[in-house]
Specification:
By secondary structure, the protein is of the alpha/beta class. The chain has 2 domains: 208 residues, UDP-n-acetylglucosamine1-carboxyvinyl-transferase, Chain, CATH 3.65.10; 211 residues, Alpha-beta prism (UDP-n-acetylglucosamine1-carboxyvinyl-transferase, Chain). It is 29% helix and 24% strand. A 4-stranded mixed β-sheet has the order 22-23-1-24. Strands 2-15-17-16 form a 4-stranded mixed β-sheet, with helices on one face.
Length: 427
Amino acid sequence: MVRARVLSRGSLTGRVKPPPSKSYTHRSVVLASLAEGESRLTNVLFSRDTKATISACTAMGARLTASGDGMSIVGVKPRAPEDVVNVENSGTTLRFMTSVLSLAKEGDSVLTGDSSIRSRPMQPLLDALGSLGVRAWSAPNNGRAPIIVKGGGMKGGETKIRGDISSQFVSSLLISSPMAESSTTITVEDAVSRPYLEATLATMKNFGVEVEREAFSEFEVAPASYEPGNFAVPSDFSSASFIMAAATVTGGRVRLDGINDEYPQGDSAILEILKSMGVKVVTNGNSVTIEAQGGRLKGGKFDLRDTPDLLPVVSVLALRCDSPVEIVGTAHARFKETDRIAGMASELKKLGVEAKERSDGLLIPPPSRLRSAPLDAHDDHRMFMALSIASLQIPEGAPILGVESLDVSYPSFLEDLESLGATIRRE
């Protein structure tokens, strides 16, 4: 199995355009596929996860044609796919398409994925759909994929759903409920990752559907039809955060292009986190420049309840801090591609860091020194990128297993690091 060792021979400097947003690519592809007529998307992310959504939308009858960095999509009323829908490693595809395929007039749909997908919770979504007149269940009867969805449409009505495991459950209901037979009221208990719900609502609005709501606790969705339109996918703050961290821990300077706040992205919080640690951050139009000030960073307490995908990157920024870093509010990070709290704790300990695992986060004291050790990203793209930032802080680097996971969200990550001056060795 191939391991990658990421080495720094000095400060990483230069200019990078981060990949398009995975979250907005998923949302725009699904919504355009539900809008009867032709839509055009630009700056689309073509990665393993988003290709799973593209394939699922094709299977339900939409016509999707890629051209360069864009797509033309002719949407349809969903029909049950002729074959099993394999979402690969994409939890977003599984959650979104479970609701979408309930809109088929007839037939059964079956969704499954890799071993990680088959371990991820689905029961809250299945229960909520049941309240709206949808018959959907877990084939192994354990609340996990494979999932079987009966066609017949969504009736509408009232439903409640837990929001503390994944915001994707709520987004899934929001995306499909405009196409229900009657109005839908969605009550959410303890919503987390709220910026992702904002992203869903913003993308829905782009395709002609608006939702009334009370903050993040109740959503009122009237029957409506999605309208075809154009959508430019923004660059991804989640992916960009790792490039920012690479420049920071090596005392470098990097300009990231194509970054803007036109659409909400929770992981833009990385900018304030870096500022609080003592990093110079300059925003200029559609670019952000990160400049490390030299020396150690400042630690602190970071509540990542709404931005759990930042847990891995903040964990490795902690290795450069002169005081402890405490991460809280991220119990739902245990339900990602892997248990990221346990995973980061175990991998940091291999490097000699006394990371303390907590139920909802981590406590990471300043390490006296980092030692090299073979690391395992647990087939998790964000874990791999985070461990690459850790490797940059070790003179001889650390070999990391899981390079193949990068095609989930940031296929060119290692090439972008090389363009900034890092050395990549495959072993």
